[in-house]
What does this fold into?
Amino acid sequence: MNTVTNKFIVLFALLWYSATAFFSIGYFHPDEHYQIIEFSQVIDREIDVASLPWEFRDKIRPSVQPTLCNLIFKACDTIYIDSHYTKTFVLRLLTGIFAVFVISFFFEASKNLVKEQYRTWYLIISYFLWFLPFLNVRFSSETWAGLFLLLSVSLVLQRRTSLISFLLIGIILGLVFEFRFQAGIASAGLILWLIWVQKEHLKHILMIGIGGLMAIMACTLLDFWFYDAWVFTPLQYMMAFANEAAKFDESPWFEYFKYILGYSFWPFGVLILASYLVLIFRNPKSLFIWISLPFLLVHSCIGHKELRFLFPLINFIPIVCFLAFQEAKEFKPNKSFTSILKVSGYLLLFINGIAIVVASLKPADIGRMSITKQIFDLKPTKPINLIAFEGSNPFDPYNFLVANFYMVQDISFRNLNQLNDLDSTWIDNEKQTFLVLKTKDAIKDETQKLLNHLRFKKLGQSVPEPFMPLLKLYGHFPEKEVLIVYGIE
It folds into this structure.
């Protein structure tokens, strides 16, 4: 493999991930914001803890990531970065840079598993499978647990034999667990592989255990400092989950397979599932099967399921696909079948190129924080009067969790029950009035007539209009939930 080509791909990945971090404003899932960024404000007493989610009260979240977030924000303060939007960009940027480093490290450790003629494509796909840049810049527990898991596997693949190396693997696996407790299942799969397949020496396994305990103990001390009480958050989490489980929606055991097929876009989903099946039957002793299969099986047995729960495994998808492809090549398919594979491959690359542009350059999810930023960037000179339906207010989208971190000064909210209630009495001339509507409400003819009558004009929307046709083709994007912000002419 050409070293110059390798370096160019890595450099381009750094640039692409940086651009993704810039455009991917907001959060994919509320936990990414409310249980990390909002939690981080507790450290400096910049928030009323009563406004935080119940998870803070029950002390079930580890404090390592909110603390890291707080330290990064403090570093921003020292170089006079005041904007909260710039600070969260820094979080995503640092995550993206770390992701590029870890993926590069994993590639170097795993490249000998892939035949030389495929290695350039393996490196490219490792960075640029369409959903990877977007997910790898998220300052979320799923992403950070996944990156540390990838780092630990890289060290295992390097096959170093020193005790320090295994102690380091244990420390990293302990952090995987602390970033996201459920990711410990994948870590357990890794350790079991070392014991039963790799036949690793007992002293090495013990060093991994010691390293893991060291990391967990250190994080427990950090939790004591954060919550100002002795608490073992993994135990608190399990107890709370048992008590709260009935409140969560439940899905059938096969739901994750539907997620993989649908949300990765079905041609990619078929390829991913087929690759895992090929590897399970052709090479069941593969490290990547031992990491992934227990993780997926345990999660499938738990009633409450979410797409993001799979994210710690996403960076293993490229290596699994290439290993499965190599296994499939052993069957020596005929020329016609080979031609079909080539055409399919080029088609997937074309779709991937379009999808990665949209996924990387749009705001996260439906772009709620994009709307708050648009309001912030207008630099209102008067107090703000924000009118919205329940669930449409980007500062308070869930009607019980306010995004305090992004809150602007002198803002008041007025909730609409029905659009017919909106009249001139809702407009305060002493304030700057904004109206936020979901697309499904804004597109109605009667809505547009009312907006024209009240002299509201469109100022922007949460997802750029050019992306909307492609997002509709994707089929899993809630385009009718996209927010539109209006102001008085």
Remarks:
- The mean pLDDT is 93.
